[in-house]
Amino acid sequence: MPRKLMTIGIALVFACTSLVLVVSCAKKQVQVEERVQPTTEQAKVTETVQQEKEAVETKETKQVDTAKEEAYRRAEAERQARLRELERQQRLAFQIREFEAENIYFDFDKSDLKPEAQVVLKKKAEWLRNNPAYKLRIEGHCDERGTNEYNLALGERRAHSARNFLIALGISGDRIATISYGEERPVDPGHNEAAWAKNRRDEFKLIKK
Amino acid sequence: MKTGRSANTATAARSVQGSYTSGVVIAVLGLILLLIASPATAKIYIDINAPSLPKLKIAIPDFKNLSDKGEHPELSARLSQVVAGDLDLSGYFLPLDKESYLEGAESPLTLEEIRFKNWSVLGAELLLRGAYTCVGSRLEVEIRLFDVIWGRQIMGKRVLGEVAGYRRVMHRVGNEIIRKLTGHEGIFLTRLAFVGTMTGHKEIYTCDYDGRNLKRVTWDRSIALLPRWSPDGKRLLYNSYRDGGPMLFMRDMVSGKVRRLSGRKGLNIGAAWLPDGKRLALTLSRRGNPDIFLIDLNGKILDRLTKHWAIDVSPTFSPDGKKMAFVSSRSGSPQIYVRNLSDGREERLTFEGGYNTSPAWSSRNRIAFVSMDGGRFEIYAMDPDGTGLRKLTDGTGNNEDPCWSPDGRYIVFSSNREGSYHLYLMNANGQNQRKIVSLKGDQTAPSWVR
Predict the structure, then answer these.
(1) Inter-chain touch B311–A180, beta carbons under 8 Å
(2) All structural domains of chain A
């Protein structure tokens, strides 16, 4: 006897739960029904509830049909816009990563731009033209040879070379800041020409205005 | 006797003058023992301006402990160690190996009792005997320096200090010995500042001239560079990126307060004190091009010292403050130039080698610098007119950042001859190269103060 009472109790709890879920969300309702299925009593109760619910819905649907369609269209449009925005942001993040990953390199004790550096800078100028919301910070670096002081000055020259080139390509100087790190921030800690060649560089950091 | 001594000093002075004007002898470190015979005392002079350098062999047994209850027995060996280290680093002495001594700490202290044979047999020319007394935290050290060959006492000295500061006490003793034998001030109480990377960041540290007594000065966790002591040792300039870019800071070494002296756009780097300690020169690039400016201790620009489209960095001043040497790339590669501050005349000093930097002007009017030589960096010195060129380092690793001792007789520099950069000491002529600072990471950019 107590056991039967308990079963009914459980059934009632499930029924109530189902009702709440049916009202709130159609998709969840299916899941709940699947879980409820094991006991036939529960299924019967749910069925009854389901029928009542459908009756109510039909009535409501007739009344607010057009308004609902409108809201749905709006939501869908919003969703699409959000997707497009997300895609755009992903594309932008990718572009920024690509932009910042591409350094330009210099010869020992030189700050003039090599032809391949100019190609890279032209690309960067185009991107900056298309993305006026971004400012640029150019960091000039040197290899470890020579004094800190001379290399700080040389690193600044290297940053200025790139800045002047971008300005010549029509990018406003207000958007381009420079800093020299001299020999203080090598990318390759080695003490050979391969490492030095990698360290004689300008790095480019984008900053959203 | 007094007359004889001053006459000899005058002769020595004239010979120095002569060697300068003739330009034959450079930086001059050597050692000539001059004994002036006298019935009462013997006077020894070390002519540290002589070109060659036979080192004086000196025996320094452990010091005798005269404390009432025998306090601090450990000082017996330590005191002799400190002064032996000092005399060794000076380059004028060769302290003999303690293992070979026939007598130890308990050997006699007075002229009458000392058995000079026991020391001359080892080849010792000088004998330093010392005793000490500890009363509480106070330390009293008494030393006597003997001429072993002539069996005479050269000097006696008593120095007071703290037990905890026993190194300092012994550095004073060492300075007294140098003063007595050379007539010049010793360097044993001088201090260094340098850049160390042991924390993973470049920070400024200070230490005694022998690398001991290390202290950390900056905690910027940024990039700290190029420390420069003021001539009086009370202030320290350095560059740091702590506020974003390379800016100039000044730390009061007494109060510990740090002030930003120049935070202009672009570079604010490589400051050099003028000898008056009231003005300094540094490279600014606020208008885009790096030039050397003169500023006061409030950071106000007083004058512009170079004006050229090229890179102008690394100013250093003559002892009289009338000339400035600096590095410029105006010829296409970094070379050393000198500028006459009164009429603005500039002259190129270095023509050999495509890469000459780091000029450092000594109080004895020599300019040390670094030249790239077969892909490596070596230290050279020359007279302020570019003559008298001499190579001071040779052969192993890179040798950079030359910095003169305040008396202009020594150079401390950084070298990676053993892999990482550490600090080394050498005499002004390049002899006696010894490692003095060897910590984790790199140690570079030394600055030296009295």
Answers:
(1) no
(2) 2-79 (no CATH), 102-208 (3.30.1330.60)
